[in-house]
# Entry
Amino acid sequence: MLNLVLFGPPGAGKGTQAEFLIKSYGLEHLSTGDLLRSEIAAGTKLGLEAKSFMEKGELVPDEVVIGMIKTKLENNKAVKGFIFDGFPRTVDQAKALDNLLNENGTPISGMLSLEVDKQELINRLMKRGEISGRPDDQDQSVIENRINVYNQKTLPLIEYYKPQGKHFGINGMGSIEDIAGRLEAVITKL
Ligand code: AMP
# Structure
């Protein structure tokens, strides 16, 4: 099984590259951001709870997102592997994910970390906001907060995966095809 963590700040291109990886490797895409937006659209209790955090660019509580991932893993036992996109975002989430995957004996194969300049992130997110209408991509202060939250709470995950030899830094600047090629070069070695 190939289990990949697609890692990087908001606007790094995780969703775009995940689409390419799904096609190339036949993996199941698990994006906690997409799952949360579906909950909001469906008007569920979970969605309502998550919305207030997402609007401010804060993280939704760990137990909420871990619960969602647990359900998805239980319901997708026969897949070739997963691409985790936007998850884990805290060290506690990473530990919970390891516990869930170890139960099945299918650990994380690698963490692919897309590296992009801050100004480029802001430009990409504002552009995405115009197209998608995502409220958290349209407000510069919310975008700044998401990048700050990423630096404080999510970036330390690199130090979680590094000692396990699972961290791979990837230049996330340039064309979609070039970045996809860099990801592929790492994945073939896993
Ligand atoms: P994304 O689509 O990955 O940019 O996520 C959008 C928003 O959903 C984030 O700003 C968070 O509020 C929330 N979110 C998504 N994934 C997580 C996660 N793993 N942990 C906590 N909050 C999350």
